[in-house]
Amino acid sequence: MSDGFKILDGFPDTVLAVEAAGKVDAQAYETVLIPAIEDKLSALGKIKLLYIIGESFDGFTLGAAWDDTKVGLTHLGDFSKIALVSDVEWIRLGMRAFAPMIPGEMRLFSLAERQQAEDWISA
User: Fold this and answer.
1) For each of the chain's 123 residues, which pLDDT tens digit applies?
2) 7-11: Cβ within 8 A, 24+ apart
């Protein structure tokens, strides 16, 4: 997989499943993730997000970090469930810190628990 985001197939229509790999930049947010979120939201109202940060993930650029913040603030109430799958400790700590502010249900999973995350978000 190249750098950026890959939209994953094989999930219910209510689920946006995305995997981050390599160095994620602002263009990945602006051309892949944000349009995918907005397309699903316009069709469904609320969605479930499966966000996988894979083993090949190498970080975010400053522009990507800014876009991530904007997505979070803009769409804070638009996710009924969020499953974050990652072994990156600073990302896990950040999600734990912000989870109380997220209106929907939020769960953290390790990469070894990816199948449980997929099952949970699809239910």
Assistant:
1) 679 999 999 999 999 999 999 999 999 999 999 999 999 999 998 999 999 999 999 999 999 988 888 888 888 789 999 999 999 999 999 888 888 888 889 999 999 999 999 999 999
2) 7/32, 7/36, 8/50, 8/52, 11/50, 11/118, 11/121, 11/122
**Phi, psi of 5, deg, nearest 5:** -115, 145
Q: List the one residue out of 69, 76, 55, 61 whose CA is nearest residue 27.
A: 61
Pairing of the two strands 4-7 and 79-86: unpaired
Cα distance between residue 78 and residue 111, in whole Å: 25
How far apart, in whole angstroms, are the C-alpha atoms of residue 40 and residue 48? 10
Number of H helices and E strands in the chain, helices first, is: 5, 5
What pTM, to 2 d.p., does this model score? Answer: 0.92
List CB contacts of 65: < 8 A, sequence separation 6 or more: none
How many Å apart are CA 29 and CA 8, to the nearest integer? 15
